[in-house]
Specification:
The protein is an alpha/beta fold and 494 residues long. The protein has 13 helices and 25 strands. The chain is globular. 44% of the residues are buried.
Amino acid sequence: MVAASASEELDVVIIGAGISGINASYRLQTMTKWQNYTVLEGRSEMGGTWSLFNYPGIRSDSDMYTLGFPFRPWLDAKGIASGEDILKYVKDTARETGVDKHIRYNHKVQRLDWNSETKRWTLYVNANGQEKTFTSRFVYSCAGYYSYDEGHNPELPGQDNFQGKLVHPQFWPKDLDYVDKKVVVVGSGATAITVVPAMAEKVKSITMLQRSPGYFLKLPRRDAVVELWKKILPSQAAHSFIRMRNAFRAYLLVWICKGFPSVARRVLRYLTAKELPPHIPLDPHFNPSYNPWDQRICLDPDGEFFASLRSGKANIATGHIDTITSNGIKLKDGSFLEADIIIAATGLKMTMAGGSQLYVDGKKKDIGQLYIYKGQMLEDVPNFGLCLGYTNASWTLGSDLASRYIARLINEMDKKGIDVVTPRCDHTTVNEKPLINLNSGYITRARKDLPKGGNKAPWYLRHSFFYDLLVVKFGSVLDSLELSAATRAQELTE
């Protein structure tokens, strides 16, 4: 990289211009006096996930009344939205709130250094091949939890033998021609059940190959009750009411699944059986080895996935890959799936803080060795926020609460004349627990890279929207934080 230019000084640097970064920026500029901020985005476009992913059928896996911004109503009639519509919504929100004027594109944060003497972060940034540096009082990482540079790419046995195209959904080739092709989608998560019905009408055949089955739940894209409320109530009131109602429904679903797993399992399998065509049996294809919500339940808007199975264009296979040949996949049970295209919907590679390196007074901090504080800060890391949403509900429900807490914290720092806040964990009283209570592959693979969760407050991730909402609005802001008096406030009193 080209040598760094003079450092620019800021109050706050927000990392990432996805849905979390836009939300955080709005909270910062409407709830605090710290208006000298910038958003550093490593890519050339805002939108995060909704800009990066371009595979057929890309859509939300949560309803937009909870995934969308609480301060800007989602007006589209479809609650489950396409990636294109979500990206437009994010861009429109950024423009209307003025957040877009604070975004710097192609600014990839490589390293963050905290200096206790200056009480500032220095950020080393790759801006189109040139190194830039920024200094900031506070850094708030809204870069999500997965790598934009690489997905999870397990070595499929014999994949070098394949003469067709091997595609990862995270890096979908825009010129991929799949008309009248034989396609096999390896995987059974949200991406797989989105791609299959989206491609089914144009391909010759498409098969979802799963190693282990999951749970599915059919939901309508349009909710008649929601539409009625939108006609009766003003736009913002309707949006807020629907948001709370849908958040409660999601919480209730998780509560039932966790509290009564055998009942939830029977109900979900019964609903699935009703959607299947006669030639596709419930077992083994829809007989998961785990309980509901040990992994996320895949939402099937309007039953599109099951409709593609009933059409005969799509199929499902359950088994382990023996080897990939020049023209398909041989399974260990001896069956063979012909393929011109193999789509490796094998998941994400998780990473924290956008993969940037974190240093405090010259000492590197391994995020995987640090306890998380209130789901949005890290122990022993001063003036640093980590924006994480929910995994058992809509992401934005949690990420917005994180940003509102950070805004309250900044206001409290101003009010009390505090320069530095550092979470300090008493390891003699806190026992480690998994940060995320799911056993999905992408989470179990990344356990060592995720912050540690504790068994008591405030050392765990947020998990219940309604409880967390009360804590963020009315709970203590400074508990378990080491505070350093503001230099400027000291100077004023001397």
